[in-house]
Specification:
Blueprint lengths: L3 H15 L11 H4 L1 E10 L2 H6 L6 E7 L5 E9 L2 E11 L5 E4 L6 E8 L4 E8 L6 E8 L6 H10 L10 E3 L12
Antiparallel strand pairs: 1-2, 1-8, 1-9, 2-3, 3-4, 4-5, 5-6, 6-7, 7-8
Helix pairs in contact: 1-4
Length: 182
């Protein structure tokens, strides 16, 4: 855990210097990033997210590499007493760690801001369709329970992407959808 905090501090400094331009993990390795994650915290200005954030639980995420370096991101959400499955496809851009949504109706960008590959990853998602751009910052962990230090560092990143702490959801752990992953 001690090793990850300097890396997160570096990411915070990069974000502060970049302003609206969000930087990605230096030397990002998609193969090491692929695998199973838990979404344990998220912050967003999306109105649907803000309405649902108090009822949400931790989601299970599976990230797979596709040909050409693209990503398939599968979410398994415990919603309304059942497991909801969602799949998003992202096309690799010219920069490692930066992906573009492959859906024609959405203009999404996904950036991996920081990761140590074995404990945590912080992702920034921006959607530019519609009148108001939507921004989301997500904290993924390999284990379901994040450390207090990691959550605090995540909280410190919130204003650097133009969001506020009242938009934050720290998602409680759930074992509701674990059987659906096997």
């Amino acid at each position: 855990m001690v090793v990850m905090l300097p890396s997160l501090a570096l990411a915070l400094l990069c974000l502060l210097q970049a302003g609206a331009d969000v930087s990605v993990q230096p030397d990002f390795n998609a193969k090491k990033f692929a695998g199973s994650w838990h979404l344990v915290a998220a912050v967003s200005n999306c109105s649907v997210f803000l309405k649902m954030k108090n009822e949400m639980k931790s989601a299970i995420i599976s990230i797979s590499l596709l040909p050409e370096g693209d990503l398939a991101v599968k979410f398994l959400w415990p919603l309304m007493d059942k497991c909801q499955k969602f799949e998003l496809l992202f096309q690799r851009s010219g920069q490692a760690g930066h992906y573009l949504g492959m859906s024609a109706e959405e203009n999404k960008e996904l950036r991996v801001l920081d990761t140590d590959y074995s404990h945590y990853a912080i992702l920034h998602e921006a959607q530019r369709s519609g009148q108001r751009p939507k921004t989301m910052l997500q904290l993924f962990t390999r284990e379901q329970d994040p450390s207090p230090q990691l959550l605090q560092t995540f909280r410190e990143l919130i204003p650097t992407v133009g969001l506020t702490e009242d938009m934050l959801a720290v998602l409680p752990a759930s074992d509701q959808c674990t059987e659906a992953t096997s």
